[in-house]
Design goal:
The chain has 275 residues and is an all-alpha fold. It has two domains: 76 residues, 434 Repressor (Amino-terminal Domain) (Orthogonal Bundle); 125 residues, no CATH class. The chain contains 15 helices and no strands. The relative contact order is 0.05.
Length: 275
């Protein structure tokens, strides 16, 4: 008995028409200008049942399913069964002791290739040069540019001239300014691993040059007590006289803030003063 019931249930499911998705059911109904009440009256259910079918909470069964499918045109809109896949192309068959045979016979016989004489082969080989097996490397690795030295040279080219002008404004002495800049870059090269990774390499060298130029031990040197002749331009002479009249700490602060263009926090940090 149970086998008969299972067979009958399976046959009914197989014969039941396919239904589209709930969203598609509503679209088909609205495309036919049918209301939920009209569909419910035609199928013999309530409006709430139709709404449940279109929201996916339930699905019609049995004769109501068939009537509902015919009403919204789901039977006609059902997609056609997919076409059977095309047969795979023939695979070439290899016979032992021979080359692979083609899937179909050629329409025309293939002409054998003409064999060139040895002289023609040698002439063609002489025209086309042979490609090198590996790309040529550096002929002399010893002449490769040194990365630290190149970076140090770039820093010197960028900052040396400006540092000389700044230290001259601090000291009023060209010889002392030149010595301060030279000593600062010598110290930077000795400690280059530290300077190379510093956030501000120019600031590192500038601080070293300022410290050397404004050291009180340098001012005790008799050679560094005498100032150089003042500039000929009146404006430059007035500026230098005003700077040299200030205490060294004020002088350095003015050069950093107004000359170099550092902000107040950066100037205070470099002069070890508070803002």
């Amino acid at each position: 008995m149970w086998a008969a019931l299972m067979t009958q249930s399976t046959s009914e499911k197989a014969a039941a028409p396919p239904l589209p998705s709930p969203k598609e059911r509503r679209r088909l109904r609205e495309a036919l200008s049918l209301t939920e009440d009209q569909v419910a009256s035609a199928v013999g259910v309530t409006r709430a049942t139709v709404r449940a079918w279109e929201t996916g909470r339930s699905s019609p069964r049995g004769r109501k399913r068939e009537a509902y499918a015919r009403l919204i045109g789901a039977v006609a809109a059902a997609p056609a069964p997919p076409a059977p896949p095309a047969p795979p192309p023939p695979v070439p068959v290899e016979a032992p002791g021979s080359v692979a045979m083609a899937a179909t016979e050629p329409d025309e016989a293939v002409e054998p290739e003409a064999v060139e004489p040895d002289g023609a082969v040698e002439a063609e080989a002489a025209v086309v040069p042979e490609a090198p097996e590996e790309p040529p490397g550096d002929p002399d690795p010893g002449h490769a540019p040194d990365a630290p030295a190149a970076a140090f040279d770039a820093l010197y080219q960028y900052a040396a001239s400006a540092l000389f002008q700044q230290t001259y404004l601090l000291t009023g002495q060209r010889a002392l300014s030149r010595a301060a800049v030279t000593k600062a870059f010598e110290l930077a090269w000795e400690r280059w691993p530290e300077v190379a990774v510093d956030r501000d390499p120019v600031g590192w060298v500038r601080a070293a040059a300022y410290e050397y130029a404004m050291s009180p031990w340098r001012r005790l040197n008799r050679e560094h007590r005498r100032l150089d002749p003042p500039p000929e331009a009146p404006a430059s002479r007035a500026l230098l006289d005003a700077l040299l009249a200030l205490p060294p700490s004020y002088r350095r602060t003015l050069v950093l803030h107004d000359g170099v263009g550092l902000g107040l926090p950066e100037t205070a940090a470099e002069t070890e003063a508070s803002t």
